[in-house]
Every structure is written in structure tokens, then in C-alpha cells.
Amino acid sequence: MADVSAPRTGSQPRIFSRDPQAFPEPSHRVEEWRFTPYRRLRGLLTGEPATSELAITVSASGATTERIPMDDARVGRALVPSDRVTAQSMVAAPEALLVTVAPEQPDALVTIEVKGGGGIAYGHLVIDVGRFARATVVLDHVGSGTFGASVEVLAADGSDVTVVSLQDWADDAVHVGAHAGLVGRDARLRHVVATLGGDLVRLSPTVRFAGPGGNAELFGLSFTDAGQHHEHRLFVDHELPHCRSRVTYKSALQGEKAHAVWIGDVFIGPKAVGTDTYEINRNLVLSDGARADSVPNLEIETGEVSEAGHASATGRFDDDALFYLMSRGIDPDTARRIVVRSFFAEVLDAIPVEEVRDRVAAAVDEELARYHQPVAS
Fold first, then answer.
1. DSSP secondary structure letter of residue 77
2. What totals of helices (H) and strands (E) does the chain contain, helices first?
3. Is the full-model pTM beyond 0.85?
4. Of 61, 66, 130, nearest in space to 102 by CA
5. What DSSP state is assigned to residue 346?
6. How far is CA 59 from CA 105, 110, 137, 155, 194, in A?
């Protein structure tokens, strides 16, 4: 059975179901798909069977991992699909990887490398962090292929959880994933996305609160090259009182038909008094032929909020900043790198693992090195 909620950030109700048939066929007339080139999804919409296996390498300190069947009761506590591809992926996934951090564990660190083998593959990850524990999980996507996946994060009361998802795919990869966080009382969830590769990457992070005092911070960075489609669709559901959320997503684009999409939906329910929320999206266009779509949405059903707002901006590369640096003896390539690094600095600083942070920064520099075409004045 489909679970149809009250309307959320728009006239159409959100549908939640593990049944793919509960969702309408994708169409550019449907809000969830109007920006997505869904004909490039290579069978994920129809749930084509897997044709290759993922090579998964796990390194865990302060946590345990195990593989569990998809019908296990520990699957689906934070995530119920809200689109057809996610539902298809959960049906097709053979099993789930469960990461468990015990209560009061001080500094758990888990690194999971997911390497695509070139064909269609499905995956499901559940991260369960106990009360008052502190954990960092790095999810690293590399290789090639077509990947449908979901990630659930359960942050128990008083816990502090950071999840970093790196999409460093080969240029021909397709990746559609849903990430869902359930934040307990006085818990903190920091979710960081860095999307660098892939032909088409569409991620849908969502957050719900399981108790008052929860704090969710969602960061995103993407560098979109010619022909690439990077789409991030967020939904923060404030149903409980005195919770906080912050969303900061930034994209840089260069090359013909580079397309970045950001959708930020925040819902504040009638009981969510004292809510403190703000979302920001910034897009930096580095060359002609690139396109950024940014759609912030905020729906409020109570007048007793602490703060609620959003901001969105898309602009060209700042030639004045470039000129300023060059006038002080800095060569053009280094000056461009400084400007773009400064643009991404807030998101890079949110990555707590130095090795991963340096790798993302280096990847941004490599992408920027391809930039030669001047922006039209």
C-alpha cells in the first residue's frame, strides 16, 4: 500500500511506498522528473535485473558491519521510497549492508568503497548509530556502470553522525540514489555530498526528526562538466518542535550542456514550533553553454518559528576577482583556482576526514584545469 502524506511544498501530495507501481510514470510534466533526462537511466526506471556485481571494500573502526536481507526489520526504518527508481532499487537490491555503532562509542570511523563493474547494479546501506555515540562514515563511489542505491542513517538520541558521500565515477556512469536521515532527540546529523563524475548523477537526500532538539546540516558540492547532468533534490521535514536544519549546496559548471539541478524543499508542520531552518544554493557558471536550475521551496504551517528562509543565486565567474589577483602577480590559472577554491571552501571545510577533503579539493583543481573558454561578457 502507498502511504500518501499531506501536501508538501507544492500542490501534489508526496507518495511514500516500496511498491514501484504506486508512482506515476516519469514525465517532464511531473515535478519530480521535469529536469531529469530520464531516458539516460539505462533500465533503472524499469528495474532491470543486475548484470554485474559491486566490489565493496569496508574499513571500520569502532563499528561492526554485516549483510542482511532486504526483508529484515532493520531495513526501511529511515527510508520509504518517494520515487519510482528508489522503489525499484529496493526491490532489486539483493541485500543490505548494515553498519552498527554501539551506544556511547566515542569516535567510530567507517570507510566504504563501492566500485562499479560496468553493468547494472543495486545496493542498500543502513547506518545505525546508537545513543550518545559519535561516528563518521565515508561512502566512496568509483568505477563505472549503472547504479541504483539507497542509504539510511539512523542517528539515535544524543548522537553525532557525519556521512560523506563522494561520487567520483567515471564519465560514463549513471547513479540514482536516495539518502534518508532520521535524527533523534538532541542528535546531530551532518550529511556531505561531493559529486564530481558520472554521465548522470541524481541524489535525493531527505531528513526527518524523531525527537525535539535535532540538528541536521546538509552540505553539497558538485563540479559539472560538458554533457554531465548532476541533480540534487533535498527534502527536510520539520514535523517536531525545536529542531534545526541548515542546507548549503554549491555547484560549478563548465562546458557545453553541463547541467546542474538543485531542488530544496523544506516543510514546517503545524506542531513544529521553534523551528530554525535556512537553505542556500549557489551556482558558479565558468563557461558558455552550461545551465543551472535552482528551486528553493519553503512551506510553513505554523506561525511560531525561530527562523525560516532560503536563498538561491546563479552567477558568472567573477572576472573582477580574477583581475585583482592577477594584478598582484598571480598567474591566471592559479588565480582561477583560488577563486573557485574560495567558492567551495565552506563545503570542503564540512568534510572532517583530511584525506577525503584533500582529494575532493584536488579533483576540483583537475576539473578546473580543463577550463579554457572565456565567459561571454
1. S
2. 4, 18
3. yes
4. 130
5. H
6. 17, 6, 10, 20, 20
Non-local CB neighbours of 360 within 8 Å, separated by 6+ positions: 166, 194, 196, 221, 348, 351
Closest to 198 in 3D by CA, of 150, 149, 142: 142
Q: Looking up cell 602577480, which residue turns up?
A: 329
Contact 85, 148 (CB under 8 A): yes
- Phi, psi dihedral angles at 365 (to 5 degrees): -60, -40
Report pLDDT digits (tens) over 88-100. Answer: 999 999 999 999 9
All cell numbers assigned to 345 = 571552501
pLDDT per residue as tens digits for the range 202-240: 999 999 999 999 999 999 999 999 999 999 999 999 999
Residue 315, helix vs strand vs coil? strand
Please, are residues 157 and 186 in contact by the beta-carbon 8 Å criterion?
Answer: yes
| Proportion of the chain above pLDDT 90, given as a percent | 79
- 23-50 as b/e, with b when 16 or more CB fall inside 10 Å? beebeeeebbbebbebeebbbbbebbeb
Angle between helices 332-348 and 354-368 (to 10 degrees): 140
Bridge-based pairing of strands 55-61 and 108-129 is antiparallel
Positions of E strands within the chain: 3-7, 13-16, 55-61, 64-68, 96-101, 108-129, 134-155, 160-167, 174-183, 188-195, 200-209, 215-224, 229-238, 244-253, 259-268, 276-285, 291-300, 307-316
Taking the C-alpha atoms of residue 123 and residue 110, their distance in angstroms, rounded to an integer, is 17
The pairing of strands 276-285 and 244-253 is parallel
For 223, which DSSP code? E
Tell me how far apart the terminal alpha carbons of the chain are, to the nearest angstrom. Answer: 54
Q: Residue 174 forms beta bridges with which residues?
A: 146, 200
